[in-house]
């Protein structure tokens, strides 16, 4: 069994469920994937459709993983729009705010998993995520300004039955294994085509 | 008035509302920001909180922009979770699916704005977004596998009162001015701290 990701503080102590995380199942899942790497291949999906103006709606319902097609318990629809000051009708968060949401969700899930694996019971986890942007980029008003965020900052408040330094190391390990943090900081190739 | 972003096909023809986009307001907004670049400074925000296990909830309610604090018409709450096969309870999309949602929303809004500015009336815009990921990264099973997506692909279907080549150029210009595309492909510095 691999414990190199979640680094249980004492590998000899059997993991127990904690923080709402089924820690034994998590360890067992890692062991199964270690034996059969093809199970680790996932393809996540979202279907978008234009609703009018800058308003669009996305459906997230299924994905490919662990060797087959999977369905979410419930398909989710979520809206994006521009606010009034950007000539939208504010029928949902802006797309860039959804990026901040994704980051918060990924880091928070990692904190819960890693704390459980390390035998730390959490009391609460909260975060403020902020992203700074100069809109002259997307408005085409300056060649020196990028389209996206120039910086994102995340501030966590975490309570649990461990010293602050232990909690801080859990946050750091969540960052080190976060899929969203990796994509946002390192980038990923995005191929866009229009079917004719 | 600057038209360098949205490249109206005929700058001499006054822009008219189209596709649900208030095109005159959009051009006027760009002109105002060109005169007062400080209005372009935005700070977007999301507040996350842990709900138990890998489930978290984000609130998106306000942002800073055009020189002051702004509120969305409605605060939005959105959930993230891991699916059952990843030891979660599937109480919401995964954080990485939210990234795909953000990309769909940003590119679709751009298509509507740019089509309006170019005098093209859209019939429909839809897209499929997919992201491929090898979970051995986040599970810590391979040093050669990254945590995040290795590739994302977006396929658009667009109808409107213009030839396919014109529609394709609108999609391309949306990509060229997309904040989310920029962040996902080029990356952004992300600073994470825990307040003690």
Automatic annotation (TrEMBL), chains A, B:
For the region Disordered, give the residue spans: 1-22
The parts of the chain that form a coiled coil are: none
Tell me the protein's name. OsmC family protein
Top-level taxon of the source organism: Bacteria
Please name the InterPro entries in this protein's record. Answer: KH_dom-like_a/b, OsmC/Ohr_fam, OsmC/Ohr_hydroprdx_reductase, OsmC/Ohrsf
Q: Name one Pfam family in it.
A: OsmC
